[in-house]
Design a protein that fits this description.
heterodimer; A: 381 residues; Rossmann fold; OB fold (Dihydrolipoamide Acetyltransferase, E2P); 2 domains; 6-stranded mixed sheet; 6-stranded antiparallel sheet; elongated; Sugar ABC transporter permease (chain B); membrane (chain B); transport (chain B)
Chain lengths: 381, 323
């Protein structure tokens, strides 16, 4: 059992015409033993390539991958003691579940047959697939195949567990269920895990630590709540959270943020905090931090018109427009019992404590919302 | 604890089953609509069945004529093969052999072709098996393994598919005069012919296997690599078992090709003891110039193995073609 370290790992693909494409750019990560790291980002951001470099399926252009104290850059996949679950599950279609799970042990260890048998059976027991051992993959449902793929990975007792979008082929209900199951399984196994997904919900719900990747570059590494409440930049702020954070292009005018349709006064405290932040900025606020009021009451409250209401049952997503031309739209999430109707005029209160300020040019966060220290657990870094 | 997990997994399985039926249902509705659109005109027709349109009548007529056209030579050959010389001269080929029926032509032809049949089997089976196997290995190396110069080698294989037999006859003859296997053993000529057919059949087998392996999920190979299997083991344990339908296709194709070959055999075989069935059939025609019954029986005997191979591997063949 060991930590997995990625040190400035880079992957450059050379195309046929000689063009070089940097798929993964200088990514450094540490995954501690037993830690569940979710690598998340939009498709094509390099997250799968990163995973494949760790697995040894892709060569590393620059940087190092270390397992414990050993650099494994040039080790073959089978010598890395790494197990991987593929998006397609990649179960061997001509073998039974038992043979599928035993294959890795037969190929990579000198374990005697009866011990292989025992290992396979205990893993099958753990995943609740004992009855399926003699079946072929084609006879199994998606969820069952998923479990067999997990079983094939865990029988080998790997030091690092890699999962490449393992839930993307399941329907929504099963996916939610497998999420908790996978999380529990990883807890029991207690091995370093990298989980690749494009789904921010999976990232939020499963991760000990999230690493957000965009265009091959690492945007932020932190606990789910850190990434949610203290995004490092605009990309992270917009990627994490559903519905996404609202953004307003504003310019700084002394103690005010000026938007085309409204002005946002900053308190002295915030003004001091943002002393260096001048010129073009972006004001961000999460939908759930916006209060809707029927009467204008106090500062930071703006008249808006309700465009569309999406009832979710427990809450409503209310899409609002501000300004005469109704060009700026944003969304507020309110309690499901709070009755609002399209066309209604409501007053949106954007509390200063919940406001994020970003530099429009660089995208860097200049100020994140204030959070009581108890809300965010200590990061294991 | 165990009870708990059991209950849990039961529930899971139910959900899985639900998910399954869902997708099945989806698929069903999809195919339903498909068949509906397809069968709609047909059902319209069948409701008007009493009056079959003139178009349809013409179609059936044409089809029937084609069937007769295709089968009549076969039928004529078969009747001729059962007729005595006399009956052959006096009746039309399409008349069934009622008077003057005999199996003598079969006995004569069988006797003449016996050695040729044995030689043909000795040639065709190893040549077909090895060309399919080599084609499969080459295709595996060209699709699932990454290395430099692949494109060039693939181009060579593709080009080799289109080399006409006639173009290589002279160099082939000269090559086998230098590499003189026939000088080592009296059966050496057959070995030369086997090797020639393997070399000539491997490219087309490679192309066939390649198109099949390209559809094989790369993640399967990667999973096996992570499982610790070497390239050779991956071929043996994963790729080969999954290639069975494609082997049926290539084996049938190669068997027919090699069994029916006349040109290479004519050029490479000089000893009568090594003659394959196509050469013997040709000789039969020369020796029995007037006895068409014997010639027809001989033709049927020579064609029988290829028909049997189709029947034996037919199901796998169909599977392989649709893959």
């Amino acid at each position: 059992m060991a930590d997995l370290q990625l040190d400035a790992v880079t992957k450059v693909f050379t195309e046929r015409d000689g063009n070089q494409i940097t798929a993964v750019d200088d990514v450094s990560l540490t995954i501690e033993d037993g830690e569940f790291l979710v690598l998340v980002g939009p498709s094509g951001c390099g997250k799968s390539t990163t995973l494949r470099m760790v697995a040894g399926l892709e060569s590393i252009s620059a940087g190092q991958v270390r397992l414990g104290d050993t650099v494994v850059n040039d080790s073959k996949p089978k010598d890395r003691n790494i197990a991987m679950v593929f998006q397609s599950y990649a179960l061997y279609p001509h073998m039974t579940v038992r043979e599928n799970m035993a294959f890795g042990l037969q190929e990579s260890t000198t374990m005697p047959d009866d011990e292989i048998e025992r290992t396979v059976e205990s893993a099958a027991d753990m995943l609740g697939i004992e009855e399926l051992l003699e079946r072929k993959p084609d006879d199994l449902s998606g969820g069952q195949q998923q479990r067999v793929a997990l079983g094939r990975a865990i029988v080998r007792d790997p030091e690092v567990f890699l999962l490449d979008e393992p839930l993307s082929n399941l329907d929504a209900k099963l996916r939610a269920q497998m999420r908790t199951e996978l999380k529990r399984l990883q807890n029991d196994l207690d091995v370093a895990t990298i989980y690749v997904t494009h789904d921010q919900t999976e990232a939020m719900t499963m991760a000990d630590k999230i690493a957000i990747l965009n265009d091959g570059e690492l945007q932020q590494v932190g606990t789910p709540l850190e990434c949610y409440h203290e995004p490092a930049n605009l990309f992270v702020a917009s990627f994490i959270g559903e519905p996404s954070m609202n953004f307003f292009d504003v310019t700084r005018d002394d103690s005010r943020l000026v938007h085309d349709h409204f002005r946002y006064d900053l308190s002295n405290e915030t003004g001091d905090e943002l002393a260096s932040a001048q010129g073009e900025l972006v004001l961000g606020v999460r939908p759930e931090d916006i209060d809707l009021q029927s009467t204008p009451d106090g500062a930071h409250t703006y008249a808006t018109v309700v465009d569309v209401v999406e009832p979710m049952g427990n809450e409503n997503n209310v899409y609002l427009t501000i300004g005469d031309e109704q060009t700026q739209t944003f969304v507020a999430t309110v309690d499901g019992m709070h009755h609002v109707e399209a066309g209604e005029t409501v007053y949106a209160h954007i509390p200063e404590s919940a406001v994020h300020i970003f530099d429009r040019q660089s995208g860097h966060a200049l100020r994140n919302r204030t959070v009581e220290s108890t809300t965010i657990p200590e990061t294991k870094l | 604890m165990t009870d708990d997990t059991d209950a849990h997994t039961d529930r899971d399985r139910d959900r899985d089953a639900d998910a399954d039926t869902d997708t099945d249902a989806d698929r069903d509705t999809q195919t339903d609509t498909e068949t509906e659109t397809k069968t709609k005109p047909a059902t319209d027709d069948s409701s008007r069945l009493p009056a079959i349109g003139p178009g349809r009548l013409a179609l059936y007529g044409a089809l029937l004529a084609l069937v007769i056209g295709y089968l009549s030579p076969l039928y004529g050959g078969l009747t001729t093969a059962f007729k005595t010389q006399e009956a052959y001269r006096e009746t039309s080929p399409l008349q069934p052999p009622i008077e003057g029926i005999t199996v003598d032509p079969w006995v004569t032809a069988g006797g003449e072709l016996a050695m040729g049949m044995i030689n043909s089997f000795a040639l065709t089976i190893p040549a077909a098996v090895f060309s399919a196997l080599l084609g499969s290995l080459a295709a595996y190396g060209l699709t699932k393994v990454n290395w430099r110069g692949q494109a060039f080698l693939l181009a060579l294989f593709l080009a080799a598919v289109f080399i006409p037999y006639q173009a290589v006859l002279v160099p082939l003859r000269q090559f086998w005069s230098i590499v003189d296997i026939s000088g080592l053993h009296e059966r050496g000529e057959l070995v030369e012919l086997i090797i020639t057919h393997i070399a000539y059949g491997t490219p087309i087998c490679t192309v066939l296997f390649r198109s099949y392996y390209q559809t094989l999920d790369d993640e399967l190979i990667e999973a096996a690599r992570l499982d610790g299997a070497s390239l050779a083991r991956i071929y043996r344990k994963i790729v080969l078992p999954l290639s069975v339908p494609m082997f049926a296709v290539t084996l049938i194709y190669q068997f027919t090709q090699i069994w029916n070959d006349f040109l290479f055999a004519l050029v490479l075989l000089s000893d009568r003891a090594n003659y394959v069935v196509t050469l013997e059939l040709n000789a039969l025609q020369g020796a029995m110039a007037t006895d068409y019954g014997v010639q027809m029986a001989g033709a049927f005997i020579a064609a029988l193995p290829t028909i049997l191979v189709y029947i034996m591997f037919g199901e796998q063949f169909a599977k392989g073609q649709t893959m």
